[in-house]
């Protein structure tokens, strides 16, 4: 018996599909905004915003399809990715006093162009998958995949530790969105497990940041490479 | 086409051209008034641009000794390009005589032609500031043009035609639907038009500091009626861009016929929308600071990115409807 079955459903919600598409488009836009963002505090705020849009789109899917377990997913997203993780990240940035400009490896227009290429690849890869899916959100699989790849690109192009972790978290956002759009979300057990993993990962990263900084006086992970070369 | 239809379309076309020529300086004046009010300054008179134009037309033309004939021809060419561009944009009605002759791509070409001539004229006399302004103008132009074309392509894919009249007709009549692609294209278009018209994040139209000038630096050598024509052309360009934005993204209220009643209603809608648009422009200019010249590639790269995303999102989410 589903404990969340009492929550409201509106099967004939007008424009539901279009609203979900709009959320998907905003997710993609935010992924690009994060890719281009230099400042660390704004980056964390953008990450929180992406979580909020993800929460909203999950709630719309739950409302329009009657998949009441999705309300649970939306709630987890809200608590974890909109409130808790950004709060931890803000605290970390404050404690490490790393409010400096984020330095990127490539210049930003080049990164953006590479990002457009990735989006095209993701859309093409997702085309056959979305033809088999029977959900009202199937068109957004391509966008979810693009978000994952853009977050991956962000992890590659950044050399500081905090933006890389934000990229990792944002990749999880994309995966979550892909699961919602392809199959109306994963089973609750898996979702809870993933959420817990991300939270634990965040705590581990937090400890790790302090260790890196104590060792090298900087959060630039290129120092780690030099260290391994020396040994 | 019957003779009657031809005559009414010709009349509508001429009316549109006249309205563009008459209202363009007023739009510039309105933006200045709004901006002064938002910045808590005492606003200049609304009709100041007309007085300026009149004053400049009365004055003598001073030419540099080494100015070639191109320098003298350029203002007329630029002015006619901009007047034609303003006439091509469907502002009052979609039933225009010129509509089948030129589409959105030709419009971008017209803007490019004017830009080439103003840059050549800027370099013609050979002063340092002239060529500096011309180079910056070309830098901005070559980055803004692809983004503008992509915006037009998005609207063309949605409506299935590159003709501006067809695009506006289609967009004004489809049933209500949320188009994320049009929202992206709208933001991209706003960024491009800010750059193309020398507005604040890219260029400051009221600057007196030569080192930061772009548009002003090119026309430093002009005087008298030449300067008047160029200033009028600049305000026509702003008018054409505003009307394009209105036509593509807020097309409701445009007339589909050439009847005088429908045209009058469309005229009222147009003036109202232009007033709101001018206020929004003043708001953008007040809220933003001018960015460094070498940041503009980033700004326009973002506009291009948004425009490409608009096409991709349309193809994926809206199924190429």
TrEMBL record, chain A:
Locations listed in the record: Cell membrane
Keyword field contains Transit peptide: no
Main location: membrane
Keywords from the UniProt entry: Cell membrane, Membrane, Transmembrane, Transmembrane helix
GO cellular component, one term: plasma membrane
Listed transmembrane segments: 15-36, 43-64, 70-93, 105-126, 132-153, 165-186, 192-212
Membrane topology summary: Multi-pass membrane protein
InterPro entries listed in its UniProt record: HyfE-like (IPR038730)
UniProt xrefs under PANTHER family: HYDROGENASE-4 COMPONENT E
Annotated protein name in UniProt: Formate hydrogenlyase
Automatic annotation (TrEMBL), chain B:
Membrane topology (UniProt): Multi-pass membrane protein
Domain of life per record: Bacteria
Keyword Hydrolase in annotation: no
Location in or out of the cell: Membrane
Leader sequence segment: none
Alphabetical keyword list: Membrane, Transmembrane, Transmembrane helix
Residues spanning the membrane: 6-31, 73-92, 104-126, 147-171, 177-195, 238-255, 261-287, 299-317
KW Signal (keyword) present: no
Cellular component annotations (GO), alphabetically ordered: plasma membrane
Protein name per its UniProtKB record: Formate hydrogenlyase
Organism: Rhodocyclus tenuis
């Amino acid at each position: 018996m589903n404990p969340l079955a009492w929550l409201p459903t509106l099967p004939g919600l007008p424009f539901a599909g279009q609203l979900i598409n709009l959320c998907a488009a905003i997710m993609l836009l935010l992924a690009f905004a994060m890719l281009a963002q230099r400042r660390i505090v704004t980056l964390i705020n953008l990450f929180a915003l992406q979580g909020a849009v993800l929460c909203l789109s999950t709630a719309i899917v739950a409302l329009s399809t009657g998949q009441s377990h999705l309300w649970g997913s939306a709630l987890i997203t809200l608590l974890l990715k909109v409130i808790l993780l950004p709060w931890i990240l803000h605290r970390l940035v404050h404690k490490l006093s790393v409010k400096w400009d984020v330095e990127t490896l490539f210049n930003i227009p080049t990164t953006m162009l590479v990002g457009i290429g990735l989006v095209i690849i993701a859309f093409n890869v997702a085309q056959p998958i979305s033809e088999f899916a029977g959900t009202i959100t199937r068109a957004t699989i391509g966008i979810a995949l693009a978000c994952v790849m853009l977050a991956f690109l962000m992890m590659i192009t950044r050399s500081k530790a905090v933006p890389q972790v934000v990229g990792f978290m944002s990749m999880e956002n994309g995966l979550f969105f892909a699961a919602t759009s392809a199959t109306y979300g994963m089973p609750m057990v898996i979702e809870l497990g993933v959420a817990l993993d991300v939270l634990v990962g965040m705590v581990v990263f937090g400890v790790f940041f302090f260790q890196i900084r104590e060792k090298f006086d900087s959060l630039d992970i290129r120092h780690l490479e030099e260290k391994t070369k020396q040994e | 086409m019957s003779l009657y239809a031809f005559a009414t379309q010709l009349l509508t076309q001429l009316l549109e051209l006249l309205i563009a020529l008459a209202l363009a300086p007023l739009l510039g004046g309105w933006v200045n008034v709004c901006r002064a009010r938002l910045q808590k300054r005492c606003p200049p008179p609304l009709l100041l641009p007309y007085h300026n134009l009149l004053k400049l037309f009365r004055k003598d033309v001073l030419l540099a000794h080494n100015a070639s004939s191109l320098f003298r021809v350029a203002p007329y060419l630029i002015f006619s390009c901009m007047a034609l561009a303003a006439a091509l944009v469907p502002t009052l009605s979609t039933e225009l005589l010129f509509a089948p002759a030129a589409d959105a791509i030709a419009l971008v070409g017209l803007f490019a032609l004017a830009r080439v001539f103003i840059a050549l004229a800027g370099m013609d006399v050979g002063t340092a500031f002239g060529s500096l302004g011309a180079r910056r103008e070309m830098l901005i132009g070559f980055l803004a043009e692809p983004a503008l074309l992509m915006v037009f392509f998005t609207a063309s894919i949605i409506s299935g035609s590159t003709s501006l009249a067809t695009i506006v007709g289609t967009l004004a009549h489809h049933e209500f639907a949320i188009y994320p692609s049009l929202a992206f294209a709208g933001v991209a278009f706003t960024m491009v038009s800010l750059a193309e018209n020398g507005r604040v994040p890219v260029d400051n139209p009221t600057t007196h500091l030569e080192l930061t000038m772009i548009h002003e630096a090119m026309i430093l050598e002009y005087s008298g009626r030449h300067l008047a024509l160029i200033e009028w052309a600049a305000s026509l360009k702003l008018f054409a861009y505003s009307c394009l934005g209105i036509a593509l993204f807020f097309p409701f209220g445009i007339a589909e016929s050439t009847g005088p009643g429908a045209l009058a209603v469309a005229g009222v809608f147009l003036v109202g929308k232009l007033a709101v648009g001018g206020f929004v422009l003043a708001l953008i200019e007040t809220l933003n600071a001018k960015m460094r010249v070498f940041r503009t590639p980033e700004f326009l790269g973002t506009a291009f990115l948004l425009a490409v995303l608009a096409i991709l999102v349309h193809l994926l989410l809206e199924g190429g409807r």
